[in-house]
Amino acid sequence: MRLTALLPLLAAVPLIAFPGVATAAPGCFDPAAPLTVEEQRLTASLPAGGPAVGPELVRLAGLDPLVAEVKHDLCAARTPRRAVRVVTQAGDRLWRTAVDRAQGRRPGLGTLDRFDDRPLYWARLQLSSAIRQWTPSFPLAGRASLLTAFDRGSRGLDDVEFPLGKTRRLMVSGFDPFQLDGPGLTISNPAGASALQLDGRVLDTPSGRAVVQAVSFPVVWGYFDQGIVESAYGSALRDRARRPDVLMTISQGRPGRFDIERWAGAWRGGFPDNNNVSVTGGVPPAAGWPQPDVQFIETTLPYQRMLAAPAGAYPVNFNQAFCVWPDSSHPGVGTPVCRSDAPAPGEIAASGGGGNYLSNESMFRSNRVRVGLGLTSVAGGHLHTPVLGQPKDPAALTDADFEARRQAIAAQVITLATAAAGGTDTANPPQATESPRAAVESLPGTVLGG
């Protein structure tokens, strides 16, 4: 189904006042038109030199002909209607090509490891920068809507369609790479890689077959402000005939382990996003969606089933940590108090178990709209993957061990998703055994005051 509730997100994403550079034919694109911080990284190379990392990953994955064709079609567009068609089809095609490549249906497409999520991210930026710098032959009043249409398609947001019938349904989300400045330029996000492996997959669970639909979220506060999470999950939940049975947001978490998060909290810690924008404060509501005014939301994923799933390369933990502000009347002031029991009425969230960055917020927002719609029978929660890291050689784009780690994480995500889709459990939470504050502070993007 085509999701229609999302607002024009990219109109709200801040631009940088100085220009970036797009790789495009002269005469059709204006290289002086400003780009976002993310898009400006397209020209960044490794410290040792060599080609720009993003475009080189796109080339190695065999996606550069697609990018070039879309740019050509954009330059050839002579009407606004044709431009809308070009960018909408481009987004859908990019997502579907990335999924097919990841799942082995495009074996001749490039030489890069098919599990690599980075080519999708950088190809998206190549095309969003082209749309932003495109100089059409006709007056253009709706560039922001063109960017939104392309971005939605390239994230799978227009590709979520579950089957009718008694088949179980699982909806998941991954994330773009993040922390890309400086030496982080080659970072991959195993959550995004796992989403590509899961989209459209049919899982065999103890409760029967389960169909998975996946989307990929940006690491940008502005998109979340405009309701990208609610639009993705809420629109699927409103489809009574094809409603998912389970929601599971996925992101990269701590080194060496998976974490099933018990609590999501309504607080943003202010860690910079992929546009180097920081936001601190309570998680705002998304316009147009019924949402309860709550500080914490507890997972309803069948975590006991997930903990009992067949072993993979990494241990799986049920993380029960959360943090509250010491004075509920002054949130943001003082040193947060971290515990592993349960939040008390009136306490104000400083962090969920999954931190206070966008991963925590994806769990909070998806389940806030689930609860707001009264769908308490639908399971929902968050899975943190192990940290993938980067290639061992800082001058390399990839290596065998880096690829093996990503494949192992993605394989175990599929195992855990199969367990999550298989049904409910009623066992009590296991006893927490680690420091709650240490558990929270070890997550990327988490900022605790004090």
If you had to describe this structure to a student in words, what would you say it looks like?
This protein is of the alpha/beta class. Helix content is 33%, strand content 14%. The protein is built from 13 helices and 14 strands. The strands form 4 sheets. It has a 7-stranded mixed β-sheet, with helices on both faces. A 3-stranded antiparallel β-sheet has the order 12-11-13. Helix 4 runs parallel beside helix 6, helix 5 runs antiparallel to helix 6 and helix 7 crosses helix 12. The radius of gyration is 21 Å and the shape is globular. The termini are far apart.
Task: Annotate the secondary structure layout.
Elements: H1 37-40, H2 53-60, H3 64-76, H4 80-102, H5 118-133, H6 143-154, E1 168-175, H7 190-198, E2 202-205, E3 208-217, H8 221-225, H9 228-238, E4 246-252, E5 258-261, E6 263-265, E7 267-269, E8 280-282, E9 296-298, H10 303-307, E10 316-319, E11 322-324, E12 337-339, E13 349-351, H11 358-372, E14 379-385, H12 400-421, H13 436-441
Parallel strand pairs: 1-3, 1-4, 4-14, 5-10
Antiparallel strand pairs: 2-3, 5-14, 6-9, 7-8, 11-12, 11-13
- Biggest sheet layout: 7 strands, mixed
> Helices and strands: which structural class?
alpha/beta
The tally of strands reads: 14
N- and C-termini, Cα separation: 46 Å
Please work out how many helical segments DSSP would assign. 13
Strand order of the largest sheet: 2-3-1-4-14-5-10
Q: Strand percentage, roughly?
A: 5-15%
Describe the global form.
Answer: globular
Give the rounded overall mean pLDDT.
91
- pLDDT below 50 for ≥5 consecutive residues: which ranges? 1-26
Rg computed from alpha carbons, rounded to a whole number of angstroms: 21 Å
Question: H/E element string?
Answer: HHHHHHEHEEHHEEEEEEHEEEEHEHH
Helix content estimate: 25-40%
